[in-house]
Amino acid sequence: MGISMNLVPYLVGDLHISAAKSATMVTNFMGTLNLLGLLGGFLADAKLSRYVTVAISAAITSLGVILLTVATTIPSMRPPPCDEYRRQHHECIEANGRQLALLYVALYTIALGCGGIKSNVSSFGSDQFDVTDPKEENAMIFFISRFYFGISIGSLFGVIVLVYIQDNIGRGLGYGISAATMVIALAVLLCGTPWYRFKRPQGSPLTILWRVLFLALKKRNQSYPSHPSLLNDYENRRVPYTKRFKCLDKAAVLDDDCAANTNKNKPCVVSTVTQVEEVKMVLKLLPIWSTCILFWTIYSQMTTFTIHQATAMHRTVGSFVIPAGSFSAFLVITILLFTSLNEKVFVPLARKLTHNVQGITCLQRIGIGLILSIAAMVGAAIVEKERRQRAIQKEIKLSAFWLFIQFFLVGCGEAFAYVGQLEFFIREAPDRMKSMSTGLFLSTISMGFFVSSLLVYIVDHATKKSWLRTNLNKGKLNNFYWLLAALGFINLLVFLILASRHEYRTHLPIKPESREEELKSLNNEIIEDVEKKASIQSLKNIEP
């Protein structure tokens, strides 16, 4: 948080990179960080353990922050300073490729390390508790609440204290503190090694996913069996059989090569019905997954253009100048506040009104988050238009505290959307693919940042760089916010349609019938169907 929330002012102010390019650099960095969380989760599940993955990732992150400290401290890694007059006329010398090389290496080393930590550290913490023991289960709940409290305190420290140090004392010291705390964190983790509980890797669910898709494609020319009960391991299936995505059933077709019992248990030759159904369940989540991406695209503006807005606004309280990046504290505080209010006020109230145990369903939470994100962009567009008019017409700087509107609305939206999305993927994912839920969630955040980069690129070229200017007074950032609001509204309509058609996963235990009973039931259904058709035909033949 101390790095990402204050990176745009450094790129624009010290390296003289354009606002649009700076925003793209930050969103690409954050998008890659979350995407690499999938790699970290895969390695932990498939080969390494969560402990080893977290330890290695923490070491990589420490190295990355040390490199970032070096990159921002060495004078030769920055272009010559630029005065305000040259800055207003776009005459500053931009940092060249050699000066940016170490910065890129540092940022993406951090992304690699943080991705591994983000996808495994909470799971490794929960591994320390036996959920079958009531006392340990309560201890795990206590741990999780303190875990997220620690993250929130760290975020506030980053955006308030570290950002102030970076802007007023020096980037090298600010990032140096981050590097030192990361090294200390790694040392603390390693010191606890003798007391940890370790779980061996049990294989990644991604392996099952790709194997089913590959086998279905490989056997695409084979015919379907006369009845699903003829599919491999149908009698021992752990989830109900469904007809959706029937083409995937071919992965479980027993052909001549698989007829022998020796080949039935070879996953590289044929999949089981359970594996096929689990993949179907994952694919069923993708439509909702796709509509969650734009929320994080809007969220990403809080780390880029909103911070850049703050640099052009009045940030003085008495004689104290608040760093632009520190205004993101409003976002963190709002998330903390509304996450607590959600569970203690809104959900109990919703239970009374809806008579539903959950109070608000996970899809309803996501919908509320999407609505609030649209409202945030509308508010951001209005504030930016007012800021620009005052700056141009009256030469007055609008107070940066007006940014509280968009920070507040996006923070409220995240309190709903974050919990809703995570709950949705956890509840709806197959039992054996729970790590996929974290992966799907991280991928929505990642894609949101990448979509932001794509939008900035398209808008910058389509408008011939007239909307997104380094000098905000000469640009039209408010139009970009209106565009996001419009896209958010369209996305909300698509979400409502998909959510209304989504069938929640049934968790009722099933009792598979024997193949003979299945076939007998099928024969009875066919006989009844033939008799009905015969009766209808006989009625049609009766003359009046």
From TrEMBL:
It is found in: Membrane. Its main location: membrane. The chain crosses the membrane at residues 25-44, 50-71, 100-119, 139-165, 172-196, 319-341, 362-383, 403-426, 438-459, 479-499. Keywords: Membrane, Transmembrane, Transmembrane helix. GO terms for molecular function: transmembrane transporter activity. It is a multi-pass membrane protein. GO terms for cellular component: membrane. Belongs to the major facilitator superfamily. Proton-dependent oligopeptide transporter (POT/PTR) (TC 2.A.17) family. This is Major facilitator superfamily (MFS) profile domain-containing protein. It comes from Gossypium mustelinum.
